[in-house]
User: Fold this.
Amino acid sequence: MTVTRTASTFAPPVMEARRWIEGVTFPADRPLINVSQAAPVDPPPDTLRQAMADAALTRDDAHLYGPVLGMPALRAGLSDQINRHYGAATTARNIAITSGCNQAFAATIATLCDEGDEVILPTPWYFNHKMWLDMAGVRSVPLPVGDGMLPDVEAARALITPRTRAIALVTPNNPSGVEYPDTLVMAFFRLAQAQGLALIVDETYRDFDSRSGPAHPLFHQDGWEETFIHLYSFSKTYRLTGHRVGALVSSPERLAEAEKFLDTVAICPGQLGQYAALWGLENLGQWVAGERDEILARRQAITEGFPALAAKGWSLMGLGAYFAYMRHPFDISSADLAPKLVTDAGILCLPGTMFWPKDAPQGRQELRIAFANLDADGIAELYTRLSALKV
Assistant:
């Protein structure tokens, strides 16, 4: 039987995890704690929803095809925001708007890779990156992280072959939450530049970085667009996950190649979502700052409450953005523990095995907790249930 592109990879992990709760009843005094997906469950603020309604009612073009690379005003608006945040000098010609950040990654790979090429991914990896590379016929080369859940530049250098086309980083990281130091990101840039590779940096969670100011100086480097490819998402920032609005930032020449891919996949990003993202850029700066403060407060609650779990043998391996990455103390694979948590503790989370190559031993002891939708009381209840767990 022929192995198809889709059969070359695994089932979507979040969808697989959702099936664990089918048919399970959660009592009123112990409702499900869902920490499986890094997506806000609340809708956008009312002001943004009103702006979207106004666009739907008054803008005819909100219902028509738009430019493949996105609305000119949104491309210019994101360029301006990038320039202010990073001290950069991009223009709208460096910006492509995509149907979510996953599509930005897929389009990037289409411009870089041929059948049998290779991309280096730090592990634990973001599983959708691995899935797309599988379906594109591109080999994912795992780069296991070291101390502090950080990838090592020299270890990456040793993995480079004549078929290597890119190194892909996610910072703040999914799944670990760790924020990569600017010196580390720059070291990867220099490695990629020297080797003639692309450095893809997915910054979906940049608006929730605990550091003030830009997280790296990559946009300041001469000829940055020949090496650095920046991926971004409006989805988490403005709670627009269902509208799928992301971005790819690179050279105009690369975006011309990406346009071929994007035109055949979606023709254009959704117009209404783009109007929402543009309105958010222009009007929600203070609101986003408040959202960031709340996420950082929840991160602090994860830190302050963790000693209760540490006393039970748990370890906090990584923390930041939407995620806490934990090592559990039980003599059971996380692939078996995670479904068991649904019935035994009323918790839905993802096992570390979903973020590592098949049969990699590291994932057996690891769990990802997407805590962004839990307030302080919810985090305390999560810890209470995990502390009481007996396996």
Q: What stands out?
A: The mean pLDDT is 95. The radius of gyration is 21 Å. Residues 285-305 form the longest helix (21 residues). The chain is about 40% helix and 15% strand.
